[in-house]
Each structure stands twice: as C-alpha cells, then as structure tokens.
Design goal:
Elements: H1 3-19, H2 21-34, H3 49-65, H4 71-78, H5 82-94, H6 103-131, H7 138-160, H8 162-195
Helix pairs in contact: 1-2, 1-5, 1-6, 1-7, 1-8, 2-3, 2-7, 4-6, 5-6, 6-8, 7-8
Length: 202
C-alpha cells in the first residue's frame, strides 16, 4: 500500500471520527468483517462482535441525541476528548505493516489523527452551538443528517479509494483550519472588548 493511500485511510477515517466516532468504527468493523476491500491487518482490531455491536448501539444513541437542540451540544462536550483519541487510534491502525518496528511513526500518526479528529470535532461543536440559537429545529435536523451522510460517504471513499480520500480530506482539513482561525479571532476580539474599560461618563 502506498504512503498516500495510507494517509488517505488515516486522514479520511480520523476526519470522520471527529464528526461521528461510532459510525466510523462501525464502518471499519463491517468492512473488515466482510472483506469489502483490502484494508491493513491492524483494522482487524475493529472486527469484533463486541466492538461492532457497541459502536452500532452508541451510534443509534448519538443519532437521536444529535437531533435534539442543546442535547447535541452536551453530547459533543462529553466527546471532546473521546473523538480525538478515537481518531488517533484509527490513524495508528491505518499504518499497517508500515509502522512495525518504527515507534516514532506510530507517535506521529497518532498526533496527526488526533489533531484531525479534534479539528473536525471542534468545527462540528461550534457549528451546532451556533445553529442551536435558532428557535426552529429543522436546521438542526438537516445538519445532523448531513453529518451522518458525510461520515458514511467519507468512510466509504477512504475504504474504496484512499488516494481520492486523501485529496478530499486535505481540502477539508484546510477549510477547517480556516474556519477555526476565524472563530478564534472572533472570540479574541469579543474577549478584548469585554476586558476593555468603558469610556468615562458612560
């Protein structure tokens, strides 16, 4: 397997895990179980009845939690550490034989996968928090379903066409970096205004 294809697996699955970890794990488990494509042997760790069943049950819970305003934000808060860790583990698994005997490569891949998953998670959580300020629930439902379709689509792409997944994931990661940059600058300006003393006589 080429290095770019390996990165396609790592970035694609980590990005998907940052949005919905349980759907991503279920997809990996089913792909490994039924041999849909030739995945690295380390992905066999997801090929377990227990892992697949737990991931499927938690996905169902998340499916409904994501449709309820503010409950989705609470769920995201709980998963602030869980999704990046899951993304890191998936990224390490994507190394396959390339990581054998090279501990540093596993560390770097874990950092990469965790960072990508964290970026995707923060983007999702920030977007959900903004959408929840709307009084109508339709936009929340549409966003939630779109996220589910995104995870399934990106996971399928990473499985079948990892090089294409690498390209798509790279573009999305660049967009996430830009988005988080805008959010950070906006938050900083708000913080500075709050700390600035009020003009005299006001």
């Amino acid at each position: 397997m080429t290095f770019i294809a390996t990165l396609g697996h790592a970035l694609g699955f980590s990005l998907a895990a940052g949005v919905n970890l349980y759907a991503t794990v279920a997809i990996l488990g089913l792909a490994s179980r039924f041999g849909w494509v030739d995945l690295p042997e380390r992905f066999a760790m997801f090929d377990s009845n227990v892992v697949i069943a737990v991931a499927a049950v938690l996905y169902v819970v998340e499916f409904f939690a994501d449709k309820i305003p503010w409950v989705d934000s609470a769920w995201d808060a709980i998963h602030t550490a869980i999704r990046p860790v899951g993304g890191a583990l998936i990224a390490v698994a994507s190394l396959g034989d390339m990581g054998d005997g090279v501990p540093m490569s596993e560390v770097l891949m874990a950092v990469l996968g965790g960072s990508v998953a964290a970026g995707a998670h923060l983007t999702k959580a920030s977007t959900r928090a903004a959408v929840n300020t709307s009084p109508e629930p339709v936009s929340n439902w549409v966003l939630s379903v779109s996220e589910d379709l995104f995870v399934v689509g990106l996971g399928a792409l990473a499985i079948a066409y990892p090089v294409a997944a690498f390209v798509v994931a790279s573009v999305l990661i660049l967009l996430i970096v830009c988005f988080l940059g805008v959010i950070s600058r906006t938050a900083w300006r708000w913080f500075v205004r709050r700390r600035s003393p009020a003009p005299a006589g006001v």
